[in-house]
Amino acid sequence: MDERVEITFEPLSAERVLRRVERPEAGAVSLFVGNVRENSRGRRVACLEYSAYEPMARRELEKISREAEARAEPSHELSSLRCAIAHRLGRLEVGEASVMVAVSSPHRAAAIAACAWAIDELKARAPIWKQEWTPEGFWWVEDPANPSADLTLRRQNPEAAEHGAAA
Fold first, then answer.
1. What is the model's pLDDT at position 16?
2. Confidence (pTM)
3. Domain spanning 5-163: which superfamily?
């Protein structure tokens, strides 16, 4: 199991993710933190729920991490980049971190580029599913690459108040 990938129901720790990429030769570290925001597509978000088929999600995150590391600067060895990814599952409240990607490199441009690439690939490829809970019910977010996509309310949910989605 790759120690640079974490899938957990516990709160994410930037310090823990950063430790996974720290190295003496790394002059730069880029960290992306994705938080639950209070508004999405014009609706108030009460909370998000993430679920995944964990073995498959872990394998895909490990592949993304390795591919990000292979994006080394041409003038450096392939091992010059190190990438760590952490994703949270379960119910998350507004303001909580859902995903973290850290990349270390000898130079900042490579770290920033690889970090941006890794989060884009994670959102496109990882078998991790997200429900947005609002006062009206919940939506499965089906196209994370297109946040303005017209999502259909999947169910009017009388239990929405249990998820903090009371009007």
1. 97
2. 0.84
3. Molybdopterin biosynthesis MoaE subunit (3.90.1170.40)
